[in-house]
Amino acid sequence: MNYKAITNVKPYYPSVISYICRYGNILIETQADQFGHVELHTVRSHEKAAHVIMNKCMEHGAEKLRMEN
Questions:
Q1: Which residues are within 8 A (CB) of 60 and not within 5 positions of it... i.e. 6 or more apart?
Q2: Which of 5, 13, 28, 69 has its CA 20 to 30 A from that of 59?
């Protein structure tokens, strides 16, 4: 998946057990018409991973703006 296709990243805990064990899921929303999301299950430190993905998306967007100006 290309970073520019990502529109939103949502980390979440699917259950109380996953909260206790400190793992969760990540939902990555894209611009696609039919299948507009990718979901990763049972991710350790899923909130940190979601932040890393969003930071990469923002870096890509900032780089694109610099190139346009």
A1: 3, 4
A2: 13
